[in-house]
Specification:
The chain has 443 residues and is an alpha+beta fold. Helices cover 37% and strands 13% of the residues. The strands form two sheets. Strands 2-1-10-5-6 form a five-stranded mixed beta sheet. Strands 3, 4, 7, 8 and 9 form a five-stranded antiparallel beta sheet that branches. Helix 3 runs antiparallel to helix 4, helix 3 packs antiparallel against helix 7 and helix 5 packs antiparallel against helix 8.
């Protein structure tokens, strides 16, 4: 039997007696578990490469996630979760330009989160032998490092799992997705910052060493024993080179990208979004683009949207009711605008309807008024939404009556729906029955 490689572990620190006692009292199977991981490609270099990839991309996922929370309008009390105390990024009114802003931020957040799954799995695979180290730490500093690592690994697995389930509309967990995902993001972000501060110097020095990616499978040998214990204690023969591991991981990421990115684009690529339940084109008709919530699911009956339907517009003591023919008789405006959903899909369509600012003028609403839009839908988390001043006043903000030259379908919000540049799709309220213009609340 080959001898164990020389240990690179530093001597036990205070309280040394505790660590030595743990070392003497090893749990059953500890050595067998540690020796079961025999791949010679594991080591500081491969782990560092995966770490650098994640360091370059995860901050973008985090930032776009926080931006999407701001896009929901925390100043109007409708971000989810709404009551987060001081635990939030700087808040500002979400801009309406460029019109594709939310399409970009949410598309990046979801698509990049999916594409990074193979990299996350590969990074965890590269460090999994550390889970079987005994003793698990040899100093108080290592205990703190392990705790931060536990939060980091647990955080990214939790965020990835709940995010993927949300995309698939599979709410298997018994808690609110928005609240859990929000606080999970903060835990993961804090752990990531701590991990980077601890590991970045060693990562840099490792990557400045030999370029191990150039070796073939036959030339692949284990790295020297390292202080982190990433190198296998009893490595077996190589079945894949480090270059092969990177190619396999990159290929998996590219495959997921090919099966996902089409949901955020229009055209032929939308048909390749096979992993997303709502991201594909329904048919080639004017109303053939995706929907999240159908009229049937929302409980909208034909009688609700028939000839008796009226839109009620209010501002202060002034109230006006308009039927659909009356809205069609008003000045019509057409705009090409995207609609983007929190699950990551988006599409640009041509919308025609009445400008929201014209409806505000109909009831003499003040120039700094926000709008509260209510739906015929009787239940649901997004049966109403509030729009910022800049969203009400934008020249392309519409109460849409038609799309792509035809009347809205029932699933797309007939008889009228809101469409606003850069607004999250859930706030582009469908089946509108009431719009109230009111003074903007104080921050």
């Amino acid at each position: 039997m080959p001898a164990d490689p020389p240990s690179a572990e530093p001597p036990a620190a205070y309280p040394a007696r505790l660590w030595r006692t743990l070392e003497r009292h090893r749990p059953p199977g500890a050595d067998a578990s540690a020796d079961a991981w025999r791949s010679p490609v594991r080591g500081p270099w491969l782990t560092s490469v995966f770490g650098v990839v994640l360091l370059a991309t995860l901050p973008l996922v985090i930032i776009t996630g926080f931006l999407d929370w701001i896009a929901y309008g925390p100043r109007l009390g409708q971000a989810f979760p709404s009551d987060v105390g001081w635990l939030h990024p700087p808040v500002f009114d979400w801009p309406t330009r460029p019109a594709w802003l939310f399409r970009l931020t949410q598309g990046l957040h979801v698509t990049l989160g999916i594409v990074l799954v193979p990299v996350v799995v590969a990074k965890l695979w590269s460090v999994v032998p550390k889970l079987f180290d005994w003793p698990p730490a040899r100093s108080v500093a290592q205990v703190l490092e392990r705790l931060s690592l536990l939060l980091l690994v647990g955080g990214i697995l939790f965020e990835t799992a709940t995010g993927l389930l949300n995309i698939q509309y599979a709410y298997l967990f018994g808690f609110d997705f928005y609240t859990a995902h929000w606080y999970g993001a903060w835990v993961f972000t804090a752990a990531l910052v701590a991990h980077v501060l601890i590991k970045l110097p060693r990562t840099i020095s490792t990557l400045r060493g030999p370029r191990l990616m150039r070796t073939t499978t036959e030339e692949t040998v284990p790295e020297p024993a390292d202080p982190d214990g990433l190198v296998a204690r009893r490595p077996g023969p190589a079945t894949m080179s480090r270059r092969g591991v990177l190619a396999l991981t990159g290929g998996g990421a590219l495959l997921l990208a090919a099966l996902t990115v089409g949901q955020s684009l229009d055209g032929v690529l939308r048909r390749t979004a096979l992993l997303l339940p709502r991201g594909r084109q329904h048919d080639d008709g004017p109303n053939g683009f995706p929907v999240n919530r159908t009229a049937a699911a929302a409980g909208i009956r034909p009688a609700d949207t028939g000839t008796q339907w009226r839109l009620t517009v209010r501002a202060g003591s002034r109230t006006v009711e308009v039927d659909r023919d009356g809205l069609l008789a008003m000045a019509q405006h057409t705009a090409d605008l995207p609609i983007a959903c929190v699950e990551g899909w988006s599409t640009t369509q041509t919308w025609t309807g009445v400008r929201l600012r014209d409806l505000a003028a109909l009831v003499d609403a003040p120039g700094n008024a926000v709008a509260r839009v209510e739906s015929l839908e009787r239940g649901g988390l997004f049966r109403q939404a509030r729009l910022q001043v800049n969203q009400v006043r934008h020249p392309d903000s519409l109460l849409a009556l038609r799309v792509n030259g035809v009347d809205l379908s029932a699933d797309h919000g007939y008889p009228a729906r809101v469409i606003v540049p850069a607004l999250p799709g859930v706030h582009c309220t469908k089946w509108v029955r009431d719009i109230t213009f009111e003074e903007q609340p104080d921050d």
